[in-house]
Amino acid sequence: MATAELQHDLRNAVRDLCRAFPDSYWRELDAARGYPDAFVKALTDAGYLAALIPEEYGGSGLGVMEASIILEEINRSGGNAGACHAQMYTMGTLLRHGSDEQKRAFLPKIAAGALRLQAFGVTEPTTGSDTTQLKTTATRKGDQYIVRGQKVWISRAEHSDLLLLVVRTTPVEQVKKRTEGLSILLVDLRTAVGHGLTIRPIRTMMNHATTELFFDDLAVPVDTLVGAEGEGFRYLLDGLNAERILIAAECVGDGRWFIGRATRYANERVVFNRPIGQNQGVQFPIARAHVNVEAADLMRVRAAELFDRGEACGAEANMAKLLAADASWEAANVAVQTHGGFGFAEDYDIERKFRETKLYQVAPISTNMILAYMGEHVLGLPRSY
Ligand SMILES: Cc1cc2nc3c(=O)[nH]c(=O)nc-3n(C[C@H](O)[C@H](O)[C@H](O)COP(=O)(O)OP(=O)(O)OC[C@H]3O[C@@H](n4cnc5c(N)ncnc54)[C@H](O)[C@@H]3O)c2cc1C
Fold first, then answer.
1. Measuring from atom 7 of ligand 1, which residue has the nearest CA?
2. Ligand 1 pocket: which of 163, 182, 362 to mutate (most atoms <8 Å of CB)?
3. What is the pLDDT of residues 52-83, one digit of tens each?
4. How many distinct helices (H) and strands (E) make up the chain?
């Protein structure tokens, strides 16, 4: 099947699946801060969460472009791909750097839905965006690593079987460059919890199942190490472009949802004997937000195409994330404004999506960090931190 036709069919199929999970489904979960188990199961059963797993391991072997279409359509339907998107972008680390044994042991089970790899542990409370300074350590003791430290904002840890964990295996004082000495462990959460790992949920402004992790001498086998010891930072960077592109697609999905809702309401709502959308003061902000979402989408498509051809796409992936996050946030604000008081009513879902899309200004990377990357690596300006 030609690529365009495949992508068109994929988009329609995901849209169909999402129809079974209407606004009320997401609204009720939001109120209860519940995990969308039924939705994640349906997505897994349909094979969508295995989109990036090669066919030899039971996945569909699709590209980041197709994966991004899946996530975009979830958000465009009014849902929230944040419940499961990490399985898409953590996969690359295992695929590119995992051993054959690890891939054979985990990928077919993940593809079949028997195992979930939904959690990714990088951020720490005291070091934040300064990843190379992270303090969680893994010390080799015989055929085990002993993990000590703390992570924060680790999402979906309570709903995942596996966690990709970034730790320091060589103290920062003993490495030449601060990017050295970090490693990635694939931790089995099912055996870790209660044996050195404690998970504490954090209640946030939106429904995101995020948590704090406390490692108190957790012992894990050395074969949980992904790739070579000390090379973890390089592996982390390798996965970031895919993550940026996938998040950009979610923001495009959010943006299109906000524009769709704002347009519908502006056509229907009559005040002063005319639809509010007849007023340019209402119409133009919606039109401008639409222009910005569509422009961001072009950058997302360009980044995804480069990625899937195996070409360098650091600049495009970062630009796509920044433009799409800004465009979805602009569209969110416009949708609230267009709905007037009803923009604040839970039953209209605007306020829920508004809270959800705000996250992408900060996570998985904040806008300032993208601008720092563009300034330093693309424009050759002095390093600012
Ligand atoms: C709901 C949620 C889910 C998350 N899920 C995960 C997850 O699953 N796994 C995970 O590892 N992490 C996760 N994160 C963490 C997220 O990636 C971080 O919050 C983000 O990277 C920013 O780190 P920080 O919060 O420590 O902010 P800080 O690093 O403390 O930064 C605070 C602010 O200062 C700005 N800033 C800092 N330094 C500079 C500088 N030098 N120049 C300019 N501006 C600067 C930042 O841009 C930011 O706006 C999640 C966060 C949230 C809120």
1. 154
2. 362
3. 999 999 999 999 999 999 999 999 999 999 98
4. 12, 10
